[in-house]
Design brief:
The structure holds two protein chains of two kinds. Helices cover about 45% and strands about 15% of the residues of chain A. Chain A is of the alpha/beta class. Chain A has a single domain, classed as TIM Barrel (Alpha-Beta Barrel), CATH 3.20.20.220. The longest helix of chain A has 26 residues. Chain A starts with 7 loop residues before the first helix and ends with a helix. Chain B is of the alpha/beta class. Chain B is about 30% helix and about 20% strand. The longest helix of chain B is centred in the first third of the chain and has 13 residues. Chain B is elongated, with a radius of gyration of 22 Å. The two termini of chain B are about 30 Å apart. The mean pLDDT of chain B is about 95. The chains are: A alpha/beta, B alpha/beta. Chains A and B meet through helix 5 and helix 6 of A and strand 8, helix 8 and helix 9 of B.
Amino acid sequence: MATQTVSNLMADLKDGKFVFTGELEPEKTTTLEHALEAARKLKGYVVACNVTDNPQSFAYISSLAASYLIQQKVEMEVIYQITCRDRNRIALFSDLLGAGALGIKNVLALTGDHPTLGDTPQAKPVFDLDSVQLLYLIRKMVDEGKDLNDNPIESPPQFFVGAGANPNADPIEPELIKCAKKVQAGAQFFQTQVVFDLDIAKNFLKETSRYNVPVLIGIFPLRSYGVAEYFDKNVPGVKVPEELLEALKKAKKTPDKKERKQKYNEINLNYFANFIKELKKTTSAAGCHVMSVGYESIIPSLAEMVK
Amino acid sequence: MIITQQKPLEEILKMLEPFSKVFIIGCGTCSTVCQTGGEEQVEQMAETLKKEGKEVTGSVVVEAPCDARLLRRDTRKMKKAIEESEALLCMTCGAGVQDIVQHLKKISVPALNTKFLGQIERIGEFYERCRACGECILYETGGICPIVRCPKGMMNGPCGGMFEGKCEVGGYQRDCAWVLIYNRLKELGMLDLYKSYKPPRDNSQLNIQPREIVLVKTRR
C-alpha cells in the first residue's frame, strides 16, 4: 500500500492495527431509520461500516445514497458496496464518480448475487463486468484518472478499494487464483464471506498471505437459535459448528426473555472472543468484518473482550 | 441445433381461435430431431386440430423452413392448400416462423417456443451450450463456455455462489462453469489461461442488432 492514505480504514490497516468493520443493510426505506440506528450503535467500535448493495438481490434503497446519508448523519465512515448485477460499465463508472463527489472513501467491488435469489427474480441480470474487471475499472479511475476507454476524468476520485473472498469455497483452488487476479487488478483489502471454522480461516490466510493484502475475516454473531439454524441450513458451504448450535439450542429453552438474551450473548461472546483472539495470535488476519445485522449490541462487549 | 418445445395446447388454440382453416408447416431439421415439428408431430397436430373443430387444409414438413430457398421449394406444390387456409401453424423455431411470414405472407402462428442453441445428449435431453454471442472464446476456457454456462457470464473465475462445484442459480443442480473450466484447463496443463486476466468484453459490434452477415450483395 504505497499509495496515499485516503480513509481511516486504510490508515488503520497501514498502521497494522487489528481492525473491525461492521455491516449495515438498509432495506426498503427512504428514512434509513434502522441503518442509522445501527450505525450509531457501532460508532466507535468499528472503523467503518459496509453498506450493502441490494444484498441477495432484494430490491432496497441505493447503496450510494445510503452510504452518503450514513456518513453525513452519523459521521460513520462507510465502505460503499457496489455490484455488477444491476449496472453496466457506464452506470458503474457514473456511480463511482458520484461516490467520489459525495465523499465516499472506501469501495468494496463485488459481482453481486444473481436476481433469481431475491424478491424480484423477474429482473434482467446485467453483469456487464465481473468483480475482477470492476476492480480494474476502479483502479484505473483512481490511479490513471481515466475511464475504460482512456478518456480523462477531471479530478479523479480517491478510493481505498476492496474485494470479497470466500474461504469456504469448495473446491478452493479456483477461488484462490481468483483472489490473486483480484490483487493483480488492484484490490487493496479483502473482506471474506462468513467463516465459523478457525481452520478454514487459517488455511485461507496462509494461502493469501503472499499477496501482502490485508484480509478481514467475516464473522457472524448469531442472535438466536433460529438465526443459527437458518444460517446452517440455508447458506451453503457455511456450517455453524455443532457445539455452537447445540449451546444456542439449549439457550432457546430459557423461558425468561431477558435471561435467554443474556445466554445468547454469553455464548456468542465466548465463541467469537476465542475465535478472534486465536486469529490475532496465530494468523496474519488484519481484522474482522462483523456481519451482525440486527445484533449490533454484541459488538461493544466483543470488542472489549478481545482488546 | 436449435432446441424447441411445443407450447401448451390451450395457448395454441387461443391464437388459432379466430381461424377455422389452418395449414401446418413442420421443420425437417432441428424440430424433427427435437420431435416438436417432424412428420409425426405435424400429423398429430392435424388430428388434434380436427378434433377441435378446425379444418386442416394441408400440411408440409419443409426441409429447413429457416432457409428461404428450401421453404419456397417445399411449399410450391402446396400453394393451393396454403391459399385456402386462414392461418399457418408453424411447428418451427422463431427463425422459421419469421421466414414463413416473410415469404408466404400469411398470418402465422408459432406452435413452438424456441428455447436455446443446444447439445442433444439423447432424445428428450437437451442442454444449452452456445449463446451465439458472436465472438468465440472457447479456446481460452478449455472448450467450456462461461457466457452460456455461467448465469452471470463471469469471465475471471467462479463467484461466491458456487458450492461443491455446483451453481446456486437453479438450486445447486447445475455444474459451476468456472469449476469445470478450472478442472479442464488443469487437466490440459493450460492453467495459465485461467490465471490470466480477461478484460471486459467488447460489445460494440455485438450491440448492432439484428446481426447480419452479407458476403455477396444481391439485387433485392
